[in-house]
Structure formats: C-alpha cells, structure tokens
Write a structure and sequence with these properties.
By secondary structure, this protein is α/β, with parallel strands linked by helices. Among the domains are: 81 residues, Helicase, Ruva Protein, domain 3; 76 residues, Beta-grasp domain (Ubiquitin-like (UB roll)). It contains 15 helices and 14 strands. The strands form 3 sheets. Strands 1, 2, 3, 4, 5, 6 and 7 form a 7-stranded mixed beta sheet that branches. A 5-stranded mixed beta sheet has the order 11-10-14-12-13. Strands 8-9 form a two-stranded antiparallel sheet. α1 runs parallel beside α10, α4 packs across α8 and α6 crosses α7. The longest helix has 21 residues. The chain is flat and about 80 Å long. 41% of the residues are buried. Bound molecules: guanosine-5'-diphosphate and magnesium ion. Magnesium ion binds next to α1.
Length: 428
C-alpha cells in the first residue's frame, strides 16, 4: 500500500517524509528542493494489541514464563517482527510513503515534472495534500509573511491541476467515446470513461459514482455528444473527486493562527476526506531525539517523556527546545502526522491487520520466528485473499486455512478479522 504526499513546494512534505520514515532527505526553506520522489516505509501503530500478548498471558498462566521484568526493554512483547517493532504489545505495521514533489502550475500541461508527477500520484492508494496552514509561502513556495497565502487557495490549486489533467484525458478520444454512447447508451459512456482512466487508477465504480453526482448537479445536460468542453471540465471535477479523493495535513500548525484550517477542513470533510493539523518539524525533532536516546516517544504518541539519558545529557538549549515542542503538542494534541496516516489507512482505505504464520499452535514461521509479519489487508478480505497478499504461490495453491486462536479449519471464503492469526495450507 502506498500513500503519497503532495503539495506545492516548501510546505513540509520532505520534513513529514523524513520524520515518518526516519530517513535522511533534503529539507530547505526554498522551493523545488525535491526533484525525484522519495520513497520510504513508515511504521504505523496497529489498532489492536499484538497477539503476542495472548501468548504471554498463556505462558505465564502455565508457569512457563515469569512475569514481565521491570527492566524488559520490550515491556513484555514476545514476537519477532521481520520489519517494524513491538514494545509493550504495541505492534507497528509498514506502509509505503512517497514524497511526490513537482506540483507546479500547469503540471497537467507537462510543466515542471508534469506527467511524471501525475503518474507518481496515480500509483498511490491515497493522497495527503500537505498545505501550509500558516499561509507563509506563496503558490510557488517562496517564503512570504505569515497569512499572505491561504490553505483554501492551495487546495483549490491542486484540485484544479488534477481536474484539468483528467479533462485532458477525457478530451482525447471524446469523438470516439460519443460514438459508443450513441450506439450503446449510458453503458457506453461508463465503459469509455473507465477505459480512458484505468491508467491513472480509475475504475468503473468510481466513474459511475462521478457520473451520478455530475448528473444530479447538472440536470439539464442533454445528450453526451452535445457536451462541450466546459461541460466536460465540470465532469472532470466529479471524476477527480472519485479517483483522487484528498486528505490534508494542515502543516506548520505550530505557527498558524488557530482556526486557520477550519474552512478547508469543512470543504475536505464534505467530500469524505480527513484534515488534521500537523507539525512535521516537531515530529522530526522528536523522532531524532528518540533515536538519540533522549526521549521516550513511541510511534503515534501524543506526548513524550525524558529518558534517564535525556535527564543527564541534554543541555539547557536542547531542553528548552523540547519544552517548546511539548507546549505545541499540548495545544495541537500531538504532531498530527501519525494520527492522520493511521486514520487514512483505517477509515479511508479500510485496512485491518492480519498475522500469517506457518505453525498454528506456536504462531511461528518456518524458522521459529514468532508472529514475524503483520499485514495490512482490506476489510472483507477472505482467507484466500490473505494467502495472495502473502505470496501469489500461496494464493494459487490455497487448500485451506487454520484460525490460530481457535484451531478451527477455515475455507477460502472465510472473512479475516482484525488481529487474526492465520495459518495457510497450500500445495507447493
Ligand atoms: N514552523 C514549521 N516549519 C516547518 C514545518 N514543517 C516543515 N517546516 C519548514 O518548512 C520548510 C520546507 O520544508 P520541506 O520539508 O523542505 O518542504 P517541501 O518543499 O514541501 O518538501 C523547511 O524550512 C522546514 O523546516 C512545521 O510543521 N512547522
Ligand atoms: Mg521537498
């Protein structure tokens, strides 16, 4: 699963990317720092406690394990994640993040990185537009006084670029499209538009949703072969909403006036999106302080505490910096970043976490690793779908699965629940 960060230059995309993926990228207070997209992995806290908690409880009850030691760095976790971590039964799951730079006016016309930029967006399952909630940079990303630009305008600018891109795709071959409509009616219209938009991630249900919204907003449309370019532009806006629904990080919230993002939040939420005020540079500072061992800041936490090392080694300037961040966190309820991405994964993409294992009683893989993988799968995925998510061969050779908690055999169509531990039996 891939989530793209998009927005005009100098809003904090690379800062957010660096913080969430804990990788080094170029960050600077001038436009166009990033040219190629940065791709990395972020680890999000799973909603439910890791199943290794129930292993722990069982083993302690059986007298096979002593209670959790005071100084246990894992705070009781027993699993052995191949990627990510699990401390105090808080397991993290990987999500690919892309810092897609290159939004410039006229991108749909091939300006800047143009089509490459738009194609990068089309590869994403969800998009987060990072906006400068403080309004301190113009549309090209040049630093201005705070409040000199507004987030609504920034959002409208991205929406317009995306819609014009789709409009261009619609116009190409429209003549051919309307001949199909004349021959096949409404069905022909849906098929034509779907075929035009598959390359950018559009599908039939998105197209049907867009057309029905479009028709109810414009009841006097007439027949498609009479739709001029203006009508097609309006249709392109509906298609944009369906194909590229946008969520928003109202970034630099730490230096924005409170309420600076309210109007945009209303707009985004009216389209089913999510807006969260964020402070990417606070998140970055905290991740770095945690990496250096100065603070305790688990992923997704809304606050942090100093470690023993932090108490003894931080100088007064560093402490002051952390105090300032602490005040911000209190005001904003956290830096907002992890919470935004987590909400998108859960609410917009409807993902749940499943734990595939090879041994259904010990919950291990072939090498004896306990609960090695935590996979995000779409809600409604069945056992066979989970097998495919692990490996194509496992899906193709699927015979049956076993629920690791109950020991019951489950069939291909059985729906997976959040936090399930599943063994898949397949022909090899
Ligand atoms: N005050 C404040 N500044 C930020 C925040 N996030 C990023 N910045 C600053 O904004 C500038 C642009 O950041 P960058 O990540 O390079 O922006 P990009 O062009 O969108 O990738 C840098 O000077 C960052 O330090 C934030 O949350 N608050
Ligand atoms: Mg950048």
């Amino acid at each position: 699963m891939r989530i793209g960060l998009v927005g005009k230059p100098n809003v904090g995309k690379s800062t957010a990317f660096a913080a969430l993926t804990e990788s080094a990228v170029e960050i600077a207070n001038y436009p166009f720092t990033t040219i190629d997209p940065n791709v990395g992995v972020t680890f999000l806290p799973a909603d439910s406690n890791c199943p290794c908690e129930s292993l722990r409880i069982k083993r302690e009850a059986d007298g096979r394990l002593p209670p959790i030691a005071q100084d246990d760095p894992r705070e009781g976790s027993l699993c052995d994640p191949r990627t990510g971590s699990c401390i105090s039964f808080r397991r993290t799951v990987p999500v690919t993040l892309i810092d897609v730079a290159g939004l410039v006016p006229g991108a749909h016309d091939g300006k800047g990185r143009g089509n490459q930029f738009l194609n990068d967006l089309a590869q994403c399952d969800a998009l987060i537009q990072v906006v400068d909630a403080s309004g301190g940079t113009d549309l090209e990303g040049n630093p201005m006084g705070p409040g000199s630009c507004n987030p609504i305008e920034e959002h409208a600018f991205l929406v317009e670029e995306l819609a014009m891109w789709i409009h261009g795709i619609l116009d190409t071959g429209w003549g051919r499209g309307v001949r199909r409509v004349q021959a096949e009616g409404e069905r022909g219209l849906v098929d034509f538009i779907t075929a035009q938009l598959t390359g950018i991630g559009g599908n039939e249900s998105m197209v049907m949703q867009a057309i029905s919204g479009f028709k109810s907003e414009h009841p006097e449309l007439g027949v498609p072969w009479e739709w001029d370019t203006e009508v097609r532009a309006a249709l392109a806006h509906h298609l944009r909403r369906a194909v590229f629904p946008l969520c928003v990080a109202a970034n630099k919230a730490d230096v924005a006036e409170s309420g600076a993002w309210d109007a945009l939040a209303e707009k985004v939420e009216a389209e089913g999106g999510i807006l969260v005020p964020t402070s990417a540079d606070s998140e970055l500072a905290l991740r770095r302080a945690a990496k250096a061992g100065f603070i305790h800041y688990p992923p997704g936490a809304v606050g942090f505490t100093l470690t023993g090392q932090g108490e003894s080694e931080l100088n007064s300037a560093q402490r002051k910096g952390l105090d300032a961040i602490s005040d911000r966190l209190e005001r904003l309820g956290g830096t907002g970043l992890v919470s935004l991405v987590s909400r998108i994964v859960r609410e917009r993409l409807e993902r749940i976490v499943a734990y595939p294992v090879q041994d259904e009683s010990h919950w291990t893989d072939g090498d004896g690793r306990v609960l090695p993988d935590a996979l995000l799968v779409r809600r409604g995925t069945n056992a066979k779908g989970l097998a495919y998510a692990v490996h194509t061969d496992l899906g193709d050779g699927f015979i049956r699965a076993v629920d690791g908690r109950t020991g019951r055999v489950i069939g291909a169509e059985h729906e997976i629940n959040d936090n399930d531990v599943i063994k898949i039996v397949a022909k090899t």
